[in-house]
Q: What sequence folds into this?
């Protein structure tokens, strides 16, 4: 950040008093600009012990498989964001959803939160960000064509615990990949 968000004056990168990290600090009004991790929220949806996967229609990783997920918006809860993304991308309205996995990706300053939900049917409606969907069991997952490592970890853990226990399980991971 070169200019202050509040007054427009130039900033300088320093460690402010009572802090331990370099921050952009305004040279005029002393406003401190904090850059914090971005939250990614998503749904791992299952129907008849098969997981809903969607193929990305956007970069990064266009044409690779993932679960419905995206950036959390301001003024929404983690679950509201995950359910919004699921509706926007694949037209599903998840029922009861429980946090299944948190996945920290510090090298890109992201934290991913994935909720599990059991769907009442396998009906989907593909949105603009997706170009294909499928329901897959463990052996049908395109493991070499998954978009992100977090999705690989999520799916492996989901099939390890099973869809019946997924709603009552929680896992926390960190990646430096």
A:
């Amino acid at each position: 950040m070169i200019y202050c968000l509040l007054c427009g004056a130039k900033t300088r990168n320093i460690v402010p008093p009572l802090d331990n990290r370099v921050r952009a600090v305004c040279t005029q009004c002393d406003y401190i600009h904090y850059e914090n991790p971005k939250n990614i929220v998503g749904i791992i949806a299952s129907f008849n012990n098969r997981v809903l996967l969607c193929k990305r229609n956007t970069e990064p990783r266009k044409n690779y498989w993932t679960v419905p997920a995206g950036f959390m918006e301001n003024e929404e809860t983690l679950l509201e964001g995950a359910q919004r993304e699921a509706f926007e991308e694949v037209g599903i309205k998840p029922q009861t959803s429980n946090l299944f996995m948190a996945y920290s990706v510090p090298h890109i300053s992201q934290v991913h939160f994935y909720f599990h939900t059991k769907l009442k049917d396998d009906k989907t409606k593909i949105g603009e960000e997706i170009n294909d969907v499928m329901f897959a069991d463990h052996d049908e997952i395109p493991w070499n064509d998954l978009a992100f490592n977090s999705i690989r970890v999520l799916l492996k853990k989901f099939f390890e615990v099973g869809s019946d226990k997924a709603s009552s399980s929680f896992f926390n991971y960190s990646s430096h990949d």
